[in-house]
Amino acid sequence: MEVVIVQDAKAGGELIAESIAGLLRRKRDALLGVATGSTPLPVYQALTAKVRAGEVDASGARIAQLDEYVGLPAGHPESYRSVVLREVVEPLGLTEDAFMGPDGAAEDVQAACEAYDRALAESGGVDLQLLGIGTDGHIGFNEPCSSLASRTRIKTLTRQTREDNARFFDSPDEVPHHVITQGIGTILEARHLVLLATGEGKAEAVAQTVEGPVAAVVPASALQLHPHATVVVDEAAASKLKLAEYFRATYAAKPDWQGI
């Protein structure tokens, strides 16, 4: 996979936003898979700035959700639907018609999972999927030992992930125990996977993802199987990469027009 080491989170956000902008210039109705949390915010902020400056037209873009909590009431501010609408759809000047995601409040959650998996396929597929990574190496909510061929499904969150996400809620007890997530097999069907990781706390997971074996215990390592996967990390998140200097030299030697 391609590994790009940048100075900080802002630089990573700019780099990925330009890649998305290039995609939208080539394909006006591109389907963008988005992640939530604090890590991808610099990407959305940089892309919004490009739209507002007239550097790219995002009006035809479509947005696909990676995962959703199960059981939060409709309109809950921390449902991932609400977060994506607030942080991505609205700033880009899009409407809810451009958005697609799983129904975490469905009476039949399994049916909702299957319906979303079908909807992604019928949409023509995700053109670029933005991913974060957990401290335990999870992507989406595919926790350690998830099947590398898994489809969109319901998952039980680990204690670590619930603790990591507690900062978004008034108390840890409010964090749901279950989520709908695109499976690893579903994620791998996107045409371009872009994983962004920042901070020293992600360094071990990044090293295992990039330089370790492909293993279910590190779900993000499945990106090694993808023909077009890019990992963008800041200096802190790259601190445990044994091949950091090689990655720097390789990216520095790429033609400017090639992008990520």
Automatic annotation (TrEMBL):
Gene that encodes it: nagB
Family: Belongs to the glucosamine/galactosamine-6-phosphate isomerase family. NagB subfamily.
Active site per database record: D67, D136, H138, E143
Role, per record: Catalyzes the reversible isomerization-deamination of glucosamine 6-phosphate (GlcN6P) to form fructose 6-phosphate (Fru6P) and ammonium ion.
Catalytic class of the enzyme: hydrolase
Site (Part of the allosteric site) location in chain: S146, R153, K155, T156
Pathway stated in the Swiss-Prot or TrEMBL entry: Amino-sugar metabolism; N-acetylneuraminate degradation; D-fructose 6-phosphate from N-acetylneuraminate: step 5/5
PROSITE patterns: GLC_GALNAC_ISOMERASE
HAMAP family linked: GlcN6P_deamin
GO MF annotations in UniProt: glucosamine-6-phosphate deaminase activity; identical protein binding
EC number(s) per entry: 3.5.99.6
Identification of the protein by name: Glucosamine-6-phosphate deaminase
Taxonomic classification: Bacteria, Bacillati, Actinomycetota, Actinomycetes, Kitasatosporales
GO terms of biological process kind: carbohydrate metabolic process; glucosamine catabolic process; N-acetylglucosamine catabolic process; N-acetylneuraminate catabolic process
Domain called Glucosamine/galactosamine-6-phosphate isomerase: residue spans: 10-225
Classification via Pfam families: Glucosamine_iso (PF01182)
Known catalytic reactions: alpha-D-glucosamine 6-phosphate + H2O = beta-D-fructose 6-phosphate + NH4(+)
InterPro entries: Glc/Gal-6P_isomerase, Glucosamine6P_isomerase, Glucosamine6P_isomerase_CS, NagB/RpiA_transferase-like
Cellular component annotations (GO), alphabetically ordered: cytoplasm
Activity control mechanisms: Allosterically activated by N-acetylglucosamine 6-phosphate (GlcNAc6P).
Record keywords: Allosteric enzyme, Carbohydrate metabolism, Hydrolase
Taxonomy, superkingdom: Bacteria
